[in-house]
Amino acid sequence: MRILEVGSWAGTSAVSWGKALEEIGVNGSVLCVDFWKPYLDLSVDVEPIYAEMNEAAAEGKVFRLFQHNVQCCGVANYVSYQQGSTTEVLPRLASDSFDVIFLDGSHRYEDVAFDIGHASRLISDGGIICGDDLELQRHDLPEREHRAAVASGRDYVLSEAKGCHYHPGVAEAVGEAFGPVASWEGLWAVMRRKPSWATVTLDVSNLRMPLHLLEDPDPSPRSQPVIETRASTLPERIWTLLRSGLRKARARL
Question: Is 86 inside any structural domain?
């Protein structure tokens, strides 16, 4: 099973993919593509977290943390990486060469649209394109409010109509490419059925936190991963997507 991850940051999801492959017992690989350099526009996104992320990327801390987590979690035999922007890396990859593509890079509309465009070329028939940060879908939003949010270029905005925050660039690019998609608390997915797309059904009744994200009883700094998780169930949802939703893929590989 060939997995492409666009946007890896500190390695939370990359390790989750690798551990899921290990648990299922499937021969597979995870190729991570990330810039690992500052990319956020601080003139638009002024909250302190964005400056902190840019600073961590500029100093190389996040890239070193990614490497550390992959190694300490024991998935280095599954995970490889190419460092660079998606505009540099994705065009070099061969068409129809991946069974799963996970998009979690830049949230800017232009960037997400570019990544989806190449993912549509890179995914094999019967494969799954999925991603994170689709809190609200384009068809559920008032058009005027959503257009203004996309035009603002901001990463994360409040929808007054819905009373919650969302990533307008992700909502616009996903809606434009696929229309309404199956989603689970921000995780979204579609299946390639050439020449079109099919709905993905996922049983999320037994979500669980992967063991590598639980506290390590060994305090040794050499053996303990230092994974930055965010306040979401993304690792659980990735784990479930691969363990239950993609078991069918093994039969055709």
Answer: yes
pLDDT in tens, 120-129: 999 999 999 9
H or E segment to which residue 81 belongs: strand 79-83
Query: Within 13 A of 208's CA, how many CA atoms are on the CB side?
Result: 8
Q: Is residue 145 part of a domain?
A: no
How far apart, in whole angstroms, are the C-alpha atoms of residue 134 and residue 188?
A: 7
Q: Does a structural domain hold residue 236? A: yes
Confidence of residue 202 (pLDDT cuts 50, 70, 90): confident
Q: In the prediction, which pLDDT does 201 show?
A: 84
Q: How many domains are there within the chain?
A: 1
Contact 33, 8 (CB under 8 A): yes
Q: Do 186 and 211 contact (CB within 8 A), yes or no?
A: no
CATH number, domain containing residue 217: 3.40.50.150
Mapping DSSP to helix (H, G, I), strand (E, B) and coil, where does residue 245 land? helix
114 is a domain residue: yes
For the entire predicted model, the pTM comes to 0.86
Domain residues for the domain of 51 are: 2-134+179-248
| Residues contacting 207, CB < 8 A, separation 6+ | 233, 236, 237, 239, 240
